[in-house]
């Protein structure tokens, strides 16, 4: 759906940040993943990686600003966005997958396991729909418990959100994970990022993982 910028409540904010040379801003937080971490431990459960990715994608889709994208003549609102995770390969390179949101974790995990296996077998950098921007880019740095993060950005009209997970660590029986969110300020404000984080954290706390 095309947004009528002339009538948009964020019109002035959009016009201001649209002119910036570097219009992205990044927020880094630590979330409590203890319930999900424990829920994924028993046999025949989805991996923590795919479960946390699924809940992140649900939170992104529930946050309208994360579905907004720049267009040459304005702003477009997607009905739904997918996620493009970075998949590590045995030769220490990586490839990009594309996973669509599904109705349940079991289906998402099945699709994710197949995509991971496929990306690891192939040598192409990416798969998916080319320049389609109905997506949230995602990376994981399982080696680093970071406190800040910025992505490599191509410039131009790129406005795709980036969400990065860091190394999970245990503190007094609680498992914490750093999360970096980088978004285009012409489309997304701090309040939108806060809503996304609140939704993600709520899901991490209450979601029941089933075998």
What does this protein look like?
29% of the residues lie in helices and 25% in strands. By secondary structure, the protein is α+β, with helices and mostly antiparallel strands. It has one domain (26-206): 2-Layer Sandwich (Chloramphenicol Acetyltransferase). Strands 2, 5, 6, 7, 8, 9 and 10 form a seven-stranded mixed sheet that branches. A three-stranded antiparallel sheet has the order 1-4-3, with no helix packed on it. The model has no long low-confidence stretch (mean pLDDT 94).
Task: Please describe the topology of this protein.
Layout: E1 2-3, H1 11-17, E2 24-32, H2 34-39, H3 48-62, E3 68-71, E4 74-77, E5 82-88, E6 94-96, H4 105-121, E7 135-140, E8 162-165, E9 169-171, E10 174-184, H5 190-206
Helix pairs in contact: 3-5
How far is the N terminus from the C terminus?
38 Å
CATH classification, class level: Alpha Beta
Overall 3D shape = globular
CATH architecture group name: 2-Layer Sandwich
Q: What does the radius of gyration come to?
A: 17 Å
**Within the CATH hierarchy, at the fold level, what is the topology?**
Chloramphenicol Acetyltransferase
What's a concise summary of this model?
By secondary structure, the chain is of the alpha+beta class. It contains 5 helices and 10 strands.
Keywords:
Chloramphenicol Acetyltransferase, seven-stranded mixed β-sheet, alpha+beta, 10 strands, 29% helix, 211 residues, three-stranded antiparallel β-sheet
């Amino acid at each position: 759906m095309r947004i009528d910028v002339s009538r948009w409540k964020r019109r002035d904010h959009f016009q201001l940040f649209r002119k910036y040379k570097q219009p992205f801003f990044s927020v880094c937080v630590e979330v409590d993943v203890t319930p999900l971490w424990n829920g994924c431990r028993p046999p025949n459960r989805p991996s923590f990686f795919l479960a946390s990715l699924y809940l992140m994608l649900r939170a992104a889709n529930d946050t309208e600003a994360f579905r907004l994208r720049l267009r040459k003549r304005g702003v477009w609102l997607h009905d739904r966005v997918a996620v493009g995770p970075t998949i590590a390969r045995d030769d220490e390179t990586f490839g990009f997958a594309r996973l669509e949101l599904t109705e349940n974790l079991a289906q998402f995990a099945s699709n994710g396991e197949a995509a991971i296996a496929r990306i690891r077998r192939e040598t192409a950098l990416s798969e998916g729909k080319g320049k389609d921007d109905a997506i949230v880019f995602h990376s994981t740095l399982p080696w680093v418990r970071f406190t800040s993060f910025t992505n490599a950005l191509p410039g131009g009209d790129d406005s795709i959100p980036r969400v990065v997970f860091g190394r999970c660590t245990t503190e007094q029986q609680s498992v914490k994970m750093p999360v970096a969110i980088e978004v285009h300020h012409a489309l997304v404000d701090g309040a939108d990022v806060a809503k996304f984080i609140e939704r993600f954290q709520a899901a991490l706390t209450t979601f029941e993982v089933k075998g």
